[in-house]
Amino acid sequence: MRKTFVLFPLLALLIVSLLASPLLAAGKKKDPLANWKTKFDHSKAEYTYILSNISHPIIEGGAVGYNIRDSLWAKSNGRIYVDYRPLAQLGGEKAVISKLKIGAVQGMLASSVASANIADKLGIVNLPYVVDSFDKLDRFRNDPELWEPFSNAAQAAGLMVPDITGYGLYGWATTTPVRNLADAKTVNFRIAQAPVNTDLYKSWGAKFTVLPWPDVSQALQTGVINGLDHTAIVCNITKKFSIAKYFTEVNYAQGLYIHLVNKRWFKKLPKDLQTIFLEVIAEESAKTRELTRKQHTQQVAKAKEAGVEFIQLSAEDKAKLVQMAAPVYVKWGKKVDDDYLTKVRSTLGAI
């Protein structure tokens, strides 16, 4: 009996320890945003700008929110504080867009695929082989005749588009090599929840599944999908290449973050702060586009070192993709304005 009485307390202590250890481990879990903590007291700021994004700031296009925060704080002499919320802290993109329109959130770095749900004209950057390189992106942004119609496209929704950053070039991360369009027919691609992408993959005659981003890893692991339509930067940083060991450099579009601002909130700022606000966003976005070029090169190199095979799609196959996308150009030409689409394609030298 004495042994039993001794064993019971020991057993109870062991059970409590086992139950408590995961909680203690969770408590010690590293803050993923620890490197981006605010280094100034913003409690007395006159204006607060809540800015949302779904990505991790390790992606340069997402880190721009913190760079805008620090630069705007300095240049406004502490009058505007950017309360930047990456990692979908405020919810998924569709939910945040709704909050943005009513002013519950003042800004958003929205993915280009989601932005087409706000205004059709914003979908032009997702069309194949239109804004399909870093050079074309810079030319698109810096040419007023191309940029201003895009920048003003969300006005009807009460939103402004002051600038744009990115997260690389779209291609196909797959579990089996895709060296040509015949190989692509054997793959079930995950595509984003976006109207342009759905129309595009239908025109290409490709098998695809529309999935929210949080579901992608499990879908790859279980074989629900065996291909992913995304950028090399994102695939490497988010460990998708640990499953999908091949990347076909289709390079049909840029992955972009469209900076959206609630127009009513912006109009309430004093004129001098409006000017500073737009200048800072322009400066930091331009710097970030350059950083994204470098990050693309770095992440591709790291992926190759880890054993990922990068495959070039032939010029003939790219031309075939353009040919098969003809119905998409027609449909979206009507949505974004045929003359505008023609001007963008001819100016940028699209395929």
What is the CATH first-level class name? Alpha Beta
- Summing up helix and strand content along with how strands pair, one would put the structural category as alpha/beta
Q: Give the ordered list of helices and strands.
A: HEHEHEHHHEHEHEHEHEEHHEHHH
Radius of gyration: 23 Å
Quickly count the domains. 1
Summarize the structure.
This protein has 351 residues and is an alpha/beta fold. It has helices at 2-27, 60-75, 93-102, 112-115, 134-142, 144-151, 181-184, 195-203, 216-222, 232-237, 263-267, 271-305, 315-324, 326-336, 338-348, and strands at residues 47-52, 80-85, 107-111, 159-174, 188-191, 207-210, 227-231, 246-249, 254-262, 309-312.
